[in-house]
Amino acid sequence: MKVAVIGSSHGGFEAVRGVLKDFPDADIEWYEKGDFVSFLSCGIELYLQNVVKNVNSVSYATPEGMEKLGVNVHINTEITDVDSEAHTLTALNVNDGKESTEKYDKLILSVGANPFQLPVPGKELGNIYAMRGRDWAIKLKEAEVTPGINNVTVVGCGYIGIEAAESFAKAGKNVTLVDTGKSILPTYLDPEFTKILEAEFKKHGVKLALNQSVKEYVGDDDENVSSVISTNGDQWDADLIIETAGIRPATDWLKGKVDLNEKGMIKTDEYQRTNQPDIFAIGDSTEVTFAPTGKKQIIALATNARRQGRSAAMNLNDEKRKTTEVSGSSGLHVFDYKFASTGFKDVTAEKAGVDVESVFVVDTAVPPFVHDDKLNAEVYFKLTFDPKTREVEGAQIMSKRDVTANINTISLAIQQHMTVDDLAYADFFFQPSFDRPWNIMNIAAQKAQDKLDHK
């Protein structure tokens, strides 16, 4: 059996691993448009902040290593067409422009997504960067030390924008973070958390330009960007723009080949199958099932892509594994604060038209008698639940101490349809240098019980 995998990031890599495991005799053809296999854009921040020294190490695999495992790796090879009836692919060598026709028995599409470029005047100017892929990582690293790049504007305040803003602030640049929303990280955190993080950004010199968007990029005589004009009339200097205003599925070439939805996402079933026989799709160009609602939506996370990749590989011949529903669990840091969230927040539930209630708890990480600022930082925790069924629907946690692993427990609680009553007295260990006798999840769930029982 010849299995073709298009794309080499999280999903594509996991699919190849899965095929190697489940079909050791398969002929695996792995296609990558770029000249580097399985670069992980989630590691760019670590590279920019010198935690990771070598950009080439931000990868799952090398062509040489995968070839030794029996995988036929094709770098600098763009797949431009697929014929599902003939089971063939059109492969373009990006170096010499030559095309070839390649056969497959099973095809796994892990085509990913592209950064969205703002359609504003001046978008063609120089020094307007994205933050996705190895090439951009190298350019961004160079920009950190380039004379003349002092004022940096980051467009978009999701995870990638937050990472870019912090990285360039730590590099000594004057950073402005602009977004249409009224707060940073609106998809991930409620205001109780974002207010603290916004103050943290301001403390480190990052200027926040919220409730506005970019109206125009203005250039200088060198044809590079020199300033930004916003939709509310503000203008500020900018030697570098980093656009992190979302992504779009890289599926234009698949129109008419497999079914796409109105957003260009590839439609798949619970086994990652498309509407075409023997073609599967995974990763950022597909939707995943959100556990709190049971409905599919866009949740572009590496963990989801890898989970889908494993499912696609297992299901090549038979229906062996449905892809697990997810809660959208994720985490990040903003300078000293570490945070994570999962499931519904008040802000996302309101947008989805879902009725939820929440409780907010502030506690210390360990008992008060532990007089150590690093050990005993404040912990902020918010638990969200369904007021009718009492089921846990989401949570958010933040502290200067890393307590983010609690969110994994909440994610499991959501998937298993646990109630606040289940969580209120759930068994968690206690040791004074690690935790409190009542874990903060217990405390929040008990508070939720009181709220529901005394309506």
Low-confidence stretches: none
Give the DSSP E fraction (strand runs of 2 or more residues). 25-35%
Indicate the CATH topology of the largest domain.
FAD/NAD(P)-binding domain
Large-scale geometry: globular
Mean pLDDT: 96
> Which CATH C-level class of the largest domain is it?
Alpha Beta
* Cα-based radius of gyration, to the nearest Å: 24 Å
Enumerate the strands of the largest sheet in spatial order, edge to edge or round the barrel: 3-2-1-7-18
CATH superfamily of the largest domain: FAD/NAD(P)-binding domain
Q: Give the proportion of residues in helices.
A: 10-25%
- Domain tally: 3
Protein name: NADH peroxidase Npx
Keywords: FAD, Flavoprotein, Oxidation, Oxidoreductase, Peroxidase, Redox-active center
EC number: 1.11.1.1
Family: Belongs to the class-III pyridine nucleotide-disulfide oxidoreductase family.
Summarize the structure in words.
The protein is of the alpha/beta class. It has 3 domains: about 170 residues, FAD/NAD(P)-binding domain, CATH 3.50.50; about 120 residues, FAD/NAD(P)-binding domain (3-Layer(bba) Sandwich), CATH 3.50.50.60; about 120 residues, Enolase-like, domain 1 (2-Layer Sandwich), CATH 3.30.390.30. It contains 11 helices and 25 strands. Strands 3-2-1-7-18 form a 5-stranded parallel sheet. Helix 1 runs parallel beside helix 7. The radius of gyration is 24 Å and the shape is globular. The mean pLDDT is about 95. GO terms for molecular function: NADH peroxidase activity. Pfam families: Pyr_redox_2 (PF07992), Pyr_redox_dim (PF02852). Its EC number is 1.11.1.1.
